[in-house]
């Protein structure tokens, strides 16, 4: 958390702080239960405390931190119920998106997805977990982009923060990248065939991986999960 960060002048400061902290929380560089110091983070980004507070608010809305009056801001432990609820909402949105995408997908769209899948394979082979997760997100974002519905992906991204922490845990043992890449190729094949039923079925099977992952991950990392 002490590593300095060079800001991009073209992006609002609070958004950059939010995305960097979100990435650190998802990867458990900042573990569940950790205290977030406004002073330390302001120093890390070399900014005033106001954009840090704004980033904290956005992190709280995503279910990643809790702001406690008179006590401070803490990274929330992982809620199995919130993961399940997020997966349910994400599945409902993404299945609607992919059914429409299967009917309008172009060869250019398929080329972008194929290139992404190639990069996923390279990231998996080089054991770059963070890069793989970013490419995984990009794959799903590209599908939403096919139907020209930016709001759909923004909504999905906002509700899946807690899911992302489980995804990061699962890569090493429960859901290795190779399995996820194979599932992505099945989704790709259904889109290439312009088959909405097959596309929906492949996507549902892919997203249900989360249900199978949560129990063993919670057992292995019980101190980071809420007792519900």
TrEMBL record:
User: What species is this protein from?
Assistant: Rouxiella badensis
User: Taking every annotated instance into account, which residue ranges of this chain make up the domain HTH gntR-type?
Assistant: 11-78
- Pfam families named in the record: FCD, GntR
One GO MF term attached to the UniProt entry:
DNA binding
Which protein is depicted?
A: GntR family transcriptional regulator
Keywords for the protein's UniProt record, in alphabetical order: DNA-binding, Transcription, Transcription regulation
Cited SMART domains? FCD, HTH_GNTR
Q: Which residues form a coiled coil?
A: none
């Amino acid at each position: 958390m002490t590593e300095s960060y060079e800001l991009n002048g073209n992006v609002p400061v609070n958004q950059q702080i939010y995305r960097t902290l979100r990435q650190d929380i998802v990867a458990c560089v900042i573990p569940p239960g950790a205290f977030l110091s406004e002073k330390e983070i302001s120093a890390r980004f070399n900014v005033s405390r106001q954009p840090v507070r704004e980033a904290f608010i956005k992190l709280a809305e995503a279910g990643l931190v809790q702001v406690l009056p008179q006590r401070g801001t803490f990274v929330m432990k992982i809620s199995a119920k919130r993961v399940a609820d997020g997966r349910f909402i994400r599945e409902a949105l993404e299945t609607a998106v992919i059914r429409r995408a299967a009917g309008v997908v172009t060869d250019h769209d398929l080329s972008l997805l194929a290139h992404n899948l190639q990069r996923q394979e390279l990231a998996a082979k080089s054991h770059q977990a963070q890069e793989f997760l970013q490419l995984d997100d990009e794959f799903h974002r590209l599908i939403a982009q096919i139907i020209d519905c930016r709001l759909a992906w923004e909504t999905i991204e906002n509700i899946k923060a807690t899911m992302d922490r489980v995804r990061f845990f699962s890569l090493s043992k429960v859901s290795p990248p190779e399995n996820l890449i194979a599932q992505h190729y099945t989704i790709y094949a259904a889109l290439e065939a312009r088959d909405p039923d097959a596309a929906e079925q492949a996507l549902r099977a892919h997203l249900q991986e989360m249900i199978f992952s949560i129990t063993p991950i919670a057992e292995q990392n019980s101190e980071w999960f809420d007792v519900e």
